[in-house]
Write a structure and sequence with these properties.
By secondary structure, the chain is mainly alpha-helical. The protein contains 14 helices and two strands; from the N terminus they run ααααααααββαααααα.
Length: about 300
């Protein structure tokens, strides 16, 4: 009888130890997530300050291009005014990052959710880096340029793709502005979100069909670099599957995309040690192979050294 009591006591102590260890792991995960969330939140707050203070060079260029387009084509005032909003913290580029941050689960119940949340926070932090965000605004600048019939020059586009960029909408494919939606005929087409339907309603632009769109090169900063640097796992997975449905020599996934997709599809059930407070630097170095030469634009803020080098 005494032996049985001892065995029961031993098992109970063992169970309590396991519960304590699991609780400690949960607390460790939550601690890492809170720290990463704080870093991303700080980056977004600083980015907002820089946007509100008009310190980003491409934001200023958006203002200039929008005003020039309105003068050239008064009928385009609504769409030019909408694009001008992207130079502020009220634009979709910024608010989408804020929405992604708010959606992260900071109290995960399993390691997979914790790992996914930490990855998303690191990506948001990378996107909120002022240097990186400024570069991403080139897509808005180039969309305004495309609407000007060649009167405004595209920026930061490789020479071999400038002609096509002058004719294309650089925001197509960016999930902040719309999504690829499957129609009743089984084909995928680009559907703009909210006010961005002005591209169809006001301008009468043809609907972008993914099959024809992906069969020729369309340069955009998001599509060429941002998708792998700071796009969400969900966006990477969606684009990977689309490229498999509509294969072409132009939309063939890069090694970086394949690596991101593999990580998303087969996420490890655990992750490593505590993140450094300078997570934006670690993220930049992790993605430094993706078009680092494209970082030709700059901004006049005092903290330009925040971005990766």
């Amino acid at each position: 009888m005494q032996t049985d009591k001892l065995r029961i006591l031993t098992c109970s102590l063992g169970l309590l130890l396991v519960i304590a260890l699991l609780s400690a792991c949960g607390n460790r995960f939550e601690e890492q997530l809170r720290e990463a969330h704080k870093n991303a939140q700080s980056s977004l707050a600083y980015l907002k300050d820089q946007l509100d203070a008009r310190e980003l060079s491409n934001a200023l260029l958006i203002d200039k291009y929008a005003s020039a387009l309105i003068q050239q084509k008064p009928d385009y005032r609504d769409i030019a005014t909408l694009l001008k909003k992207e130079a502020t913290s009220q634009g979709k580029a910024y608010t989408t990052l804020s929405q992604r941050l708010a959606a992260v689960n900071l109290t995960p119940t399993d390691t997979e959710t914790a790992s996914s949340g930490l990855q998303e926070l690191q990506l948001i932090n990378s996107a909120a880096d002022v240097y990186e965000f400024n570069n991403s605004l080139a897509d808005v600048v180039n969309t305004l340029a495309a609407l000007s019939d060649g009167q405004l020059a595209v920026i930061n586009v490789p020479a071999s793709q400038r002609a096509s960029a002058q004719q294309a909408n650089a925001l197509v494919g960016n999930p902040a502005y719309g999504s690829w939606t499957q129609g009743s005929n089984g084909q995928s087409f680009w559907a703009w979100y909210g006010m961005y339907s002005l591209f169809n309603n006001v301008l009468g632009m043809n609907r972008y069909d993914y099959g024809s769109w992906s069969s020729r090169p369309h340069y955009s900063y998001y599509g060429n670099y941002g998708r792998n640097r700071w796009g969400s796992d969900a966006d990477v997975t969606r684009n990977q599957k689309l490229s498999q449905r509509y294969p072409s020599k132009y939309n063939k996934p890069s090694a970086a995309t394949n690596a991101r997709y593999a990580t998303t599809a087969k996420r490890s059930s655990s992750y490593g040690g505590k993140q450094s407070k300078s997570s934006s630097k670690s993220s930049s170095s992790r993605y430094s192979s993706y078009g680092s030469s494209s970082r030709s634009s700059s901004y006049s803020g005092a903290r330009s050294s925040r971005s990766g080098k």
